[in-house]
Amino acid sequence: MYTVAPKISYDLPNQITRAHIDALDQTLIPQTYRTLMLRCLDDVPKNRPNAKEVVEQLNTIADQVAISKPCLKCFENPRYARCLPCRHKTMCTACLNEMRQSDQRPKCILCRGIYTSIEEDTDSDTYKVATVSKK
């Protein structure tokens, strides 16, 4: 998976490490893909995903990339992350993180509400209604 991820150089490292994965461009690669790569490299074999799980997750990630819309701030990168608690998906991860670093109280560019965290999902809708699980 690391071999085909977008990056400047396509030299195959002898030993792929967490540092290689951390160095990948976060604006081009969904966090779910990065997490899957790290799980595949886990030192404990029981913690690694099986082939069926890898295929299912790769299909989900492919769908996420295929339906992603461009960031409303930079208009370049796809938007993979959603602001919480407003649940608007308007910016790419890079722009969201940039806003969080430059402002202690970053605001969603759509509703101007302060967001406290971000969440990645596969839904391409700009707004997603929160679901409440019944116990």
UniProtKB/TrEMBL annotation:
<dbReference type="InterPro" id="IPR013083">
    <property type="entry name" value="Znf_RING/FYVE/PHD"/>
</dbReference>
<dbReference type="Pfam" id="PF13920">
    <property type="entry name" value="zf-C3HC4_3"/>
</dbReference>
<protein>
    <recommendedName>
        <fullName>RING-type domain-containing protein</fullName>
    </recommendedName>
</protein>
<keyword id="KW-0862">Zinc</keyword>
<feature type="domain" description="RING-type">
    <location>
        <begin position="71"/>
        <end position="112"/>
    </location>
</feature>
<keyword id="KW-0479">Metal-binding</keyword>
<dbReference type="InterPro" id="IPR001841">
    <property type="entry name" value="Znf_RING"/>
</dbReference>
<keyword id="KW-0863">Zinc-finger</keyword>
<dbReference type="GO" id="GO:0008270">
    <property type="term" value="F:zinc ion binding"/>
</dbReference>
